[in-house]
Design brief:
heterodimer; A: 830 residues; alpha+beta; 5-stranded antiparallel sheet; 4-stranded antiparallel sheet; 29 helices; 39% helix; B: 468 residues; alpha/beta; two-stranded antiparallel sheet
Chain lengths: 830, 468
């Protein structure tokens, strides 16, 4: 993980999009006072008083020009060009001709960032009037000549590929073993021009098609190979693990797809100490009964393996135990390998057993702390002696007909090939493509048999560009065009469900019932009610909040022994369920910050200090007083903005600025001392992170930016690296007070939340720009800003309900239409 | 921690590669010159790391020439020590003695004693690992990755990392070190160690494609070709429906299709040009015997070089504190215990037998490389096989006078037939820097803690100033 070095230069600050972008909801063209939306729960009474004024009085052109000349051009002159911007030639009347400049001004003014603190500035109302005048001019012009933008065709991302395979074949695949990772552009994997091609990618497609077609239909000629599942070395195995049989301890559970009916051998490898002995061997030695490892398939015990105390990796077999050959049927089966639990309840060690059990394996062979053997991985070898291929969910899905005579084969094959290709290609199979696939079928039929032919046709379908690429009709050479209905169905489906459209959606499209924004809005409502809409949280929200980074965090084991990977997984699940709740219940987006509830299981509840939550299932609970700031106080975001051995107010501040306020601070200049170079001890006492930060930004050049970034993060200092509540850091009381860049005093997470809510337009802007980036598969440009503002305005009128944003984006011209494609090929190259 | 997005990307990219290239295993060489013609003088690098130093790095061992021979220059005598089995390849051998791996030493009191948990990360990076058990691991870019950056990009797999012991244990190791330092020797960047593959089958699949038997792989190649035909036809039709910009994007894709077709053809041409033999199936699982496992890994590396699927391997032979006993050496003490010989001469000699046994596996590999034509030369002429350890005298856990030799000439990077004895205190990094310069990475001013070059082609124990 990168360390965010702490310093910024003063000039950098001026160019800093810092907390910019608060956008007012109404432009003066649509003058409508913004009523403070009232999220159902928890709205601090103080909030109303904090609202920034959003209404403005119209300002004449002469006045606008005068304001710019008087207050902006001093720094933003041709000669000085502070922040790389000159406004000397900027004419407010012609704002539409310089949208890049105008949008910059709008962002800074709404955020209250310009003119900067200390410079001469007019009253707030004047600046708001200027901004609104610019917005009106730009949005009015845009309404006359809307530009929906253009993007190259998209290819399926890994996540979309997995979901498409699931829909098509009722099969879960581990795509990471086939396809290279997706490129993330502007925060999202859907951005088309970041989706590059390479021989490695094509190779991955071919390999995936070959293997998945075999798994889906079963493989009578499958040769023995091994597949393995690993338990994280950061997973405690002292307790029960979800998915394993009750009464068991540790181990792992997985759904494995067996390629054929046949015999398989399961090889369990146990964790060793660094010197090669069995971890936990003292526990085995001292126990009255043997340590047993149980292998179950679909809940049935298929083998019990004995763990011996003397096992060592110097032995021939090492620390592995192998089952006898076990007959298993083809298709997905629930595999669990876990130890038989021999104790429950608290241990009476003098030193408390820890969650991070493998933090230092030496104690596993010593006395004084209770340990027990841990599973490292399980390898499934086979099939040996294939006996056939049983029915599987995939086969039931594929075989919509079964030929009973040779003469029926061809018709049946054509039916199956057409059905699968129609779904795989999202609605339409062209006759030529169908012909190609049938030719492949005949080839396989000739080599093998009916099923062999179908399998090869399936393989070709899965590697087919019409499956892998979401190609839309040719954009016009000039002007704009409406996306064809069936293609719009795909756009909607990948946006909301992260997968191909279902037949109902395709029927709707074919019947012309996506032709108008109102019809699209109606379909969006149906789609949001479908369970598949969870893709919005697991795909969009996860990427927006950077949740994928939670899994990469490994807090220092010695400093945070109460962390283990199950806690990180719990945090991620919590945040996902939280956003699923916002979508499903159509709550106000502001609850993201104001919610006094969240979703926890026993592990997370214990960490948060919430009593009476038992078991691995998540449920909605009221959060303690200290955690009523929505995602700001959820473990996921607190963990992902820390470094391994300490909190990072800089990372936390940066995350808030980048993700929530759409204003990332500029990167630090080179050659600055690392945080670690600060004094850790003074006057015989360990210094807190805050005190070390203060030393660190003594340099005025650093301070100019850090006084903006740090107070945000310092307000969250009550939460340690793992998101656990604390009142002391390094033994000294924690101070969470501070002053934000706009002068707002904050005092802990609730104060920070309220300060951010004052800037809620920034949050709405960040959210909407991100949602549009994800949905459109392209970067958001200046010409998109009128659309962004319209989506926010409409959502504001609807209490910022989540569905308003989704509908707003889905019904926007940018989503439903396409501009002319660029003619220069260079534009479309990677 | 190594579980970063970037890291995953590399690993999965590797996994996705090589599907269409299938070659028979073990005996199966590409018929001489067939696949290798295009590779005239393309250098390859294999970096083999062993742990626990060498008996020849003790005072007694130096005196008795248990590792490095007495004479410097061309006329060295290998008969006294661990390198004896390399005698048939002496013209290809560059022995570098007396260099230190100072970056593996303890830098603070908390680090004292943690040598076993930090040294492996130092060998190829010559950088000091940050003591942490968290995700904030840090060392340096390793030499194999610098090489891969220059030579690995033209091949389907830019580089590959292999190991013998079960080292894929993530979590905390001892002395406050993350296990990645102990388990991984290749670092793509200072915070990105690359995981190593122990299972020969996984190596095989990644290099040569899926399929257990030659027929199976042939069959899959045939299937891939029909699928590629379908793709080509579909892309041609698609192009007609699209605008200029999207067409250009598809044209890129067609290039990839042709590239994959070309690889398949290359393999099939090689297979049909004669000497295709019925060969063993791809391996299942990890061999029980250390020697068999190592040799199998060497087979795979020679095959990958011959078919130019990759040009860089790093190969971790063992794991620190391993208690493995090596049958056939006559030593019944485990590797780690034997390494703590208490400076007892008899016990040092016992330990030397283990060192000797490890080195004796190398000629098998060198022989394979020498028998394989590569352009106008042989693979051994174009490869450098590096073998060494970041530890010196394991009894003391010191990192002085560490074992190191190079075999092969690396397409001109080395001349061979040379024993270079460095001046006392010379960093091993100097030898690595010289090697990298020999490979043409001239813009590299330094490597790890290098202080300059160490000539690998003349015996003089000189250290030149950096930048010359």
């Amino acid at each position: 993980m990168k360390k965010f070095l702490i310093a910024l230069t003063a000039p950098a600050l001026l160019g800093l999009g810092l907390a910019a972008q608060t956008l007012s909801a109404p432009s003066s063209a649509v003058t409508r006072p913004v009523t403070a939306p009232s999220p159902a729960s928890q709205r601090p009474a103080a909030m109303a008083a904090h609202q920034v004024a959003h209404t403005s009085t119209p300002m004449s052109l002469a006045e606008q020009t005068a304001v710019v000349k008087t207050y902006c051009v001093t720094c933003h002159s041709e000669a000085r060009k502070v922040g790389g911007l000159s406004l000397a030639a900027f004419d407010p009347a012609e704002a539409g001709r310089a949208p890049d400049v105008a949008e910059k001004i709008i962002r800074k003014l709404t955020a209250g960032m310009m003119p900067p603190a200390g410079a001469r500035r007019p009253d707030e109302a004047t600046l708001v009037s200027l901004r609104d005048a610019l917005i009106t001019r730009i949005d009015t012009a845009a309404a006359l000549r809307p530009n929906p933008g253009w993007r190259p065709f998209q290819r399926l991302t890994r996540a979309e590929y997995v979901r498409s395979i699931r829909d098509l074949l009722d099969l879960e695949v581990d795509v990471a073993s086939y396809l290279p990772p997706d490129t993330i552009t502007d925060g999202f994997d859907t951005v088309a021009d970041g989706q590059t091609f390479s021989p490695a990618l094509l190779d991955g497609y071919l390999r995936a098609a070959s293997q998945i077609s075999r798994l889906a239909l079963g493989d009578r000629s499958a040769s023995a190979t091994t597949a393995s599942y690993t338990v994280s070395g950061f997973q405690s195995q002292m307790g029960y693990i979800d998915g394993t049989p009750f009464g068991s301890r540790g181990g792992l559970a997985a759904t494995h797809v067996f390629p054929a009916d046949g015999t398989y051998r399961f090889t369990a490898k146990l964790v060793r100490t660094v010197s090669g002995e069995l971890f936990g061997n003292t526990a085995v030695a001292m126990a009255a009964s043997k340590e047993l490892l149980e292998v179950t398939l679909n809940g049935d015990r298929v083998a019990v393996l004995e763990v011996h105390q003397g096992m060592s990796d110097a032995d021939k077999g090492g620390l592995t135990i192998v089952t006898p050959p076990i007959h298993v049927k083809a298709g997905p089966q629930q595999l669990a390998v876990a130890f038989v639990a021999r104790q429950s309840g608290p241990l009476d060690d003098l030193m408390t057993p820890i969650q991070n059990t493998l933090i230092d394996t030496r104690y596993g062979t010593g006395f004084g702390i209770t340990s027990a053997p841990h599973l490292q991985d399980v390898a499934i070898g086979g099939p040996f002696e294939v006996t056939g291929v049983s029915e599987t969910p995939s086969r039931r899905r594929i075989f919509t007909c079964r030929p009973t005579t040779a003469s029926q084969e061809e018709t049946c094959a054509a039916t199956i090939v057409r059905t699968i290709a129609t779904q795989a290609f999202r609605g339409t199979v062209r006759p030529e493509d169908f012909g190609d696939l049938m030719r492949v079928y005949y080839q396989g039929r000739k080599q093998d048999n009916f099923e062999g032919g179908l399998r090869l046709a399936l393989q070709a379908t899965l590697a087919h560009p019409r499956f892998l690429f979401r190609v839309e009709q040719r954009a016009p050479t000039a002007g704009t065009t409406r996306i064809a209905d069936v293609e719009l169905a795909s756009r909607l489906s990948y946006f909301i469900w992260g997968t191909a459209p279902d037949s109902a959606l395709l029927d709707t499209a074919r019947a012309g019932r996506l032709a108008t924004p109102a019809l699209v809005a109606r379909e969006v409502r149906r789609m949001l009610a479908d369970p598949k809409a969870e893709a919005l949280t697991s795909r969009f929200w996860s990427q927006w909040l950077r949740l994928q980074d939670v899994a990469k965090m490994r807090p220092d084991g010695l400093a945070f022994p109460y962390w283990d990977v199950a806690l990180s997984e719990g945090f991620t699940r919590e945040t996902q369920l939280f956003f699923e709740h916002l979508v499903r219940e159509d709550r106000s987006l502001l609850e993201m910050l104001t919610a006094d509830y969240s979703f926890v299981n026993e592990r997370v509840a214990r960490h948060y200090g919430i009593p009476n939550v038992v078991g691995p299932d998540f449920r909605k609970v009221q959060m303690p007083e200290t955690r009523r700031a929505g995602i700001l106080t959820q473990g996921s975001t607190l963990l992902l903005t820390s470094v391994a051995d300490r909190t990072s107010p800089v990372q936390r501040g940066k995350w808030v600025m980048q993700v929530l306020l759409a204003s990332p601070p500029p990167p630090p200049p080179p050659n600055i001392p690392a945080f670690e170079a600060t004094k850790a001890v003074a006057a015989g006492r360990l210094l807190t992170v805050r005190e070390r930060m203060e030393q660190h930004r003594n340099n005025p050049a650093c301070n100019s930016c850090h006084r903006v970034i740090d107070p945000i993060g310092l307000a969250l200092e009550n939460f340690d690296v793992t998101g656990r509540y604390r009142i002391k850091d390094s033994g000294s009381p924690i101070d969470v007070t501070g002053e934000l860049y706009d002068g707002t005093k904050v005092d802990g997470p609730i104060g920070l939340r309220d300060a951010l809510l004052r800037r809620k337009e920034s949050i709405m802007l960040s959210f909407t720009e991100s949602l549009m980036t994800y949905a459109l598969g392209r970067r958001i440009e200046d010409f998109d800003m009128p659309t962004v503002r319209k989506v926010i305005r409409d959502a504001a009128a609807n209490d910022y309900k989540v569905s308003s944003f989704i509908t707003g984006v889905a019904t926007s011209p940018a989503f439903r239409m396409s501009a002319a494609a660029p003619t220069e090929t260079a534009d479309s190259r990677r | 921690m190594f579980i970063t997005g970037k890291h995953l990307s590399r690993r999965t990219a590797l996994k996705g590669l090589g599907v269409t290239v299938a070659l028979p295993l073990l005996e199966a060489m590409v018929p001489a010159g067939a696949a290798a013609q295009a590779l005239k003088g393309k250098p390859r690098l294999v970096c083999i790391e062993n742990v626990h130093g060498a008996a020849g790095s003790t005072n007694f061992g130096i005196e008795k020439n248990l590792w490095s021979p007495a004479a410097v220059g061309r006329d060295f005598d290998l008969s006294a020590g661990s390198l004896q089995s390399l005698e048939p390849f002496r013209d290809y051998l560059t022995i570098v003695s007396n260099t230190d791996v100072a970056k593996a030493e303890a830098y603070s009191t908390a680090e004292i004693g943690g040598d076993h948990f930090r040294a492996s990360a130092v060998f190829l990076t010559q950088s000091h690992p940050k003591q942490t058990q968290g995700s904030d691991v840090r060392a340096g870019v390793s030499i194999d990755q610098l090489f891969a950056g220059r030579f690995g990009q033209d091949t389907p797999v830019p580089s590959m990392q292999l190991c013998i012991e079960n080292v894929d244990q993530s979590g905390g190791c001892e002395y406050g070190y993350s296990c990645v330092y102990m388990d991984m020797i290749s670092w793509a960047s200072p915070d990105q160690p690359l995981p190593m593959i122990q299972d020969p089958r996984a190596v095989f699949d990644q290099l040569f494609g899926l399929g257990a038997t030659p027929e199976d792989r042939r069959r899959r190649r045939r299937e891939d070709r029909s699928v590629l035909d379908t793709i080509t036809a579909a892309v041609d039709r698609l192009k007609r429906e699209l605008g200029v910009a999207d067409k250009a994007r598809l044209a890129d894709y067609l290039d990839d299709v042709r590239e994959i077709e070309r690889r398949i053809q290359k393999v099939e041409a090689a297979n049909s040009s004669g000497e295709e033999r019925q060969l063993p199936n791809s391996p299942v699982g990890v061999p029980d015997s250390f020697d068999d496992h190592v040799k199998l890994m060497f087979d795979l590396q020679a095959l990958a070089f011959a078919s130019d699927i990759t040009r860089v391997f790093s190969f971790k032979l063992s794991r620190d504190v391993s208690g493995r006993v090596f049958p056939g050496t006559g030593v019944n003490t485990g590797f780690h215990n034997a390494s703590h010989h208490n400076e007892n001469e008899e016990r040092i000699k016992q330990f030397e037998k283990i060192n000797r046994h490890h080195v004796s596996l190398i000629p098998y590999f060198l022989d394979r490389l020498k028998r394989t034509a590569d352009g106008d030369a042989t693979l051994l002429d174009n490869t450098v096989v590096m073998y060494g350890s970041p530890m010196g005298n394991p009894n003391l856990h010191n990192h002085k006078r560490c074992p190191l030799f190079f075999a092969g000439k690396g397409a001109g990077a080395l001349r061979g037939g040379m024993h270079v004895k460095a001046a006392a205190g010379t960093p091993m990094a100097n030898a690595f820097l010289t090697l990298l310069h020999g490979f043409g990475l001239d813009d590299l001013a330094s490597f790890g803690d290098s202080t300059g070059e160490l000539s690998l082609t003349s015996a003089g124990a000189t250290t030149m100033a950096a930048g010359i």
